[in-house]
User: Which sequence fits this backbone?
């Protein structure tokens, strides 16, 4: 259908960091699937659009624009969340919760971030979705570091580090890198210099 083609075009622009064009095509696709009331596609497109705004947040220097991008990303993730629950799309739900947790960490709303990460972890364990599981653990450790709770952070960061040594570990290189950085921060703040 036309929405699938628009989604693919949007994804290409997203990959090329041409975010305005990506949003245009994602929103066109969203309009089509919304008219058709096709909930799986609506929820997926909401997450895709939220991801674009999250990336725009990461790359923006203007604090007002950053705030707007984060609010917009959150609104799309919040639209997708009940749909993912209703569909019982556990992978999509785990991803949506992970994204919401990341955005709340960015807003320094650590209690809320932790709740989202913990729910993502629970679901990821249930369905054996290791990629999200380790991402959620790593981001949970990061949220605890950012809130100054280094001992709690250590538990989750070491879990990811030890899983990194196992043959079944499926996290991407970015997650592994972030986890090593978080571990160094934890060791430094807990005054364990021989590990940092």
Assistant:
């Amino acid at each position: 259908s036309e929405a699938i083609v628009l989604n693919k075009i949007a994804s290409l622009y997203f990959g090329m960091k041409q975010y305005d064009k990506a949003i245009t095509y994602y929103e066109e696709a969203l309009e089509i699937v919304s008219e058709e009331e096709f909930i799986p596609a609506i929820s997926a497109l909401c997450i895709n659009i939220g991801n674009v705004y999250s990336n725009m947040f990461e790359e923006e220097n203007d604090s007002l624009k950053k705030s707007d991008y984060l609010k917009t990303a959150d609104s799309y993730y919040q639209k997708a969340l009940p749909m993912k629950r209703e569909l019982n799309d556990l992978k999509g739900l785990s991803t949506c919760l992970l994204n919401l947790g990341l955005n709340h960490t960015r807003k320094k709303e650590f209690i809320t971030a932790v709740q989202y990460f913990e729910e993502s972890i629970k679901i990821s364990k249930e369905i054996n979705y290791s990629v999200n599981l380790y991402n959620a653990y790593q981001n949970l450790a990061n949220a605890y570091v950012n809130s100054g709770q280094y001992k709690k952070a250590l538990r989750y960061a070491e879990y990811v580090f030890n899983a990194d040594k196992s043959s079944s570990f499926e996290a991407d290189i970015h997650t592994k890198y972030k986890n090593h950085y978080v571990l160094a921060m934890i060791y430094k703040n807990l005054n364990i210099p021989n590990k940092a």
